[in-house]
């Protein structure tokens, strides 16, 4: 089922919605299940939802920037992962410090 058919559109829509629903459900469920027993968990936990929302805004430019380098795909994946995680959690911390956003994010 590929090409311009309604079945392709329905499948793509279903997969996209299922992926978002799964991620959101897992994030919200784990928020209530995992207790922050160390400093890393106490930092990551509250910022997790914000990172989920902003990660495409960071990940896309990072991967586009890495596309100009002649490296193996797995190396690019590792570099993009590390950069994106660090930048996203930094941005999430900054965004949650803005008055009014902490209650939303």
Account of the protein in words:
The chain is an all-alpha fold and 105 residues long. It has two domains: 1-33; 37-105, no CATH class. The chain is 76% helix and 0% strand. The radius of gyration is 17 Å and the shape is globular. The N and C termini lie far apart (39 Å).
Report how far apart the termini are.
39 Å
Mean pLDDT: 86
> Can you count the helices?
3
Q: Radius of gyration, rounded?
A: 17 Å
Strand element count: 0
Strand content: under 5%
Overall shape: it is: globular
* Unreliable sequence segments: none
The residue fraction in helices comes out at: over 70%
Summary?
This protein is 76% helix and 0% strand.
Secondary structure layout plus pairing:
Layout: H1 6-33, H2 39-66, H3 73-96
Helix pairs in contact: 1-2, 2-3
Keywords summarizing the entry:
105 residues, mainly alpha, 76% helix, 0% strand
């Amino acid at each position: 089922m590929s090409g311009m058919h309604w079945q392709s559109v329905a499948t793509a829509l279903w997969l996209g919605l299922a992926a978002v629903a799964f991620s959101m459900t897992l994030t919200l469920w784990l928020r209530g299940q995992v207790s922050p027993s160390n400093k890393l968990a106490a930092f990551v936990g509250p910022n997790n939802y914000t990172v989920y929302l902003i990660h495409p805004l960071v990940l896309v430019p990072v991967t586009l920037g890495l596309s100009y380098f002649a490296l193996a795909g797995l190396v690019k994946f590792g570099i993009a992962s590390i950069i994106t995680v660090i930048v996203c959690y930094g941005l999430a911390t900054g965004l949650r410090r803005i008055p009014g956003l902490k209650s939303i994010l």
